[in-house]
Specification:
This protein is an alpha+beta fold. The protein contains two helices and ten strands; from the N terminus they run βββαββββαβββ. A five-stranded mixed beta sheet has the order 8-5-6-10-9, with no helix packed on it.
């Protein structure tokens, strides 16, 4: 059995949660004060994900960079590989908020989208 101690970030309470794993399966969760905390702890212990936020280069625009983010959380272990892909791109203005700038990054089914407008 393996134990992991986490601080829940789902709500402002910040419960200290202990997760006991049997291999890759959750055996026990203690310390959460709500159901959402237990769900967070189980997911964070077995398959941690993060929303990727960064910026990308732009040419011919009023700004040289545009902020972008993943439409859905990506597996934490893929974040650096995703950054390697994103850094290979240079976008051409104009760019509109919500525009898909990298489709299906690393075959995850998740798109990278612009979070701001950049006019030409």
């Amino acid at each position: 059995m393996d134990t992991r101690d986490l601080i829940c970030t789902v709500c402002p309470v910040g419960c200290s949660i202990t997760v006991t794993l049997n291999g890759k399966e959750v055996h026990d969760i203690k310390g959460n004060s709500c159901k959402r905390g237990a769900e967070y702890a189980a997911a964070e212990s077995t398959n941690p994900v993060r929303t990727l936020t960064t910026s990308m280069r732009v040419v011919n625009g009023k700004s040289r960079m545009v902020p972008v983010k993943s439409q859905n959380p990506l597996p934490k272990g893929l974040l650096m590989d995703c950054m390697g892909v994103i850094n290979q791109y240079t976008l051409k203005a104009p760019i509109v908020i919500g525009e898909v700038v990298v489709k299906n990054i690393l075959n995850t089914g998740i798109d990278i989208v612009a979070t701001s407008n950049v006019s030409a």
